[in-house]
Amino acid sequence: MVLHAQSGLVIAPALLLNGLALLCALCSGWLLLATHWRETRALRRPLVASALETASTSDGATQRVNQLFNRVGGAGLLLGLGLSMASRLL
Q: What range does the domain containing 59 cover?
């Protein structure tokens, strides 16, 4: 099966699926990298308000958000890998 665009360009489904896998993997990799940068920047930042109670709750919330971003990034990389492997079957 081959998709035909209006301009006469022929696009194979495997190529489209590989492009989608690449896009998914790039976005997920960027999310993981940005989360890593965020974590290292938070570790370098001096704790100005260490005596405040809100600092400990915000640290817990920040850790939960970082954990969520890491999970979403990992799931996106797995999705990209799965799409790439599925494109080989086409």
A: 28-41+54-90
